[in-house]
Amino acid sequence: MKYFVLIPDGAADEPQDSLGGKSPLEYASIPTLDRLATQGMVGLTNHVPDSFNPGSEVACMSLMGYDPLTYFTGRAPLEAAAKGISLGPEDWAVRCNLVTIEDQGDGPVMVDFTADHIATPEATELLETAQQGLAKDFPDLKGWEFVPGVSYRNLLLFRGNVGGHCDLGDGLRTTAPHDRVNQLISDAFPRGTGSRLLTEIMEHSETWLKDHAVNRSRKSKGLGIATHVWLWGAGQRPAFRTFKSLYGVQGTMITAVDLLRGLAELAGWRCREVEGATGYLDTDYAAKGQAAIDEFSESDLVCVHVEAPDEAGHEGNALAKVKALEEIDEKIVAPVISHLEQQASNGEPYRVFVCPDHPTFCSTRMHSRGLVPFIIAGIGVDGMSAQSYDEKAVAIGPTITQGSTLIGTLFDDAEGQLNPDTVN
Ligand SMILES: [Zn+2]
User: Fold this and answer.
1) From ligand 1's centre to the CA of 192, what distance in Å?
2) How many CB atoms lie within 10 A of CB 166?
3) Is 94 helix (H, G, I), strand (E, B) or coil?
4) H-helix or E-strand containing 352?
5) 317-340 as b/e, with b when 16 or more CB fall inside 10 Å?
6) What gap in Å lies between CA 282 and CA 311, rounded to an integer?
7) What's the CA-to-centroid distance between 380 and ligand 1, angstroms?
8) pLDDT band per the 50, 70, 90 thresholds, residue 283
9) What's the 131 CA to ligand 1 centre distance in angstroms?
10) Is the pTM of this model over 0.70?
11) Which residue ranges make up each domain of the chain?
12) Pick the CATH number of 2-71+240-422 from 3.50.50.60, 3.40.50.2300, 3.30.200.20, 3.40.720.10
């Protein structure tokens, strides 16, 4: 049996005035997804437990079959995994943005959570200086290191194997800098277990970065500067069991997004990189489709994650979301299904799971909590004769409140019938 999983990130949405009262999924011409919906089982599900913000790191974890309430420890550990950094049992990973904070009279404001999309070599230089500042201002600290990433997205690690000490704990609460854009940040500093050190590092970073050559040069070019490091998303290594040990199936992930690479790494999946996959609206859809087809010779399960519908949602552009969905249907789903049908005629059956991680509303330009439409189709799956693949049409099926259970039903009774009644 082969399994194809498609994650159209942020595809679920509301009816749009600009689309004649239809949602992007309803409006888009997506004949292959519509056919899968008609032939398969459909319904609605939720990948974001109430206690979490609706982020892709939580929702995609759930979609891959790992309940965030059990497995989610923070965003930074997933990003560390994506970089191939393995965390030891004592270690912590903290997400470290380079940001622009300005006092505009009423107090400090988060002007830019990307430090004007600072270039990677500049960020690397600033973090070298921050590392020196850490050694100078906190001479007793051991085991803390800044790890440059891409642009403003960097990490601060605590390595427990060098005899240092770390006060961070489960009660630590931090604030994502992109949630405070153009807002006062006086109350947004880390709180709870071990937060004091993180806050002190953030405060000291102002003096480390202030007159740095990188910032002087950016200023002279009229670019925004990195005034501070912002620490958030801290966590320890999540205790993932491999997907194969849970479900008996080897997976491959195809994505342009680091968080998904990290999840795949922790689940023990292969990661297949695709040239031209950008994580944006201009991604090479056909190359991703072809890569998926190729990967079926390596893995029994191939998951294609496409970020473009989410990006269109963040831009508030319903027509761009429609276009992204149409590209996904034509250039990824159609060729993959036609390949799988050909293999099926040679005796290798298949099943398909299609599900967005969370809605991204064009109206608010933000992720939202709420239900997303799914399809499970293929051999042994009783069809429900849904009219099409969209939020309204799939409502004829069940509502699965705990989305992390859904992928497991793909592997239920792989020889025989998969029946909607067995799903709850
Ligand atoms: Zn998003």
Assistant:
1) 27
2) 18
3) strand
4) strand 350-354
5) bbebbbbbbbbbbbbbbbbbbebb
6) 11
7) 34
8) confident
9) 31
10) yes
11) 2-71+240-422, 92-235
12) 3.40.720.10
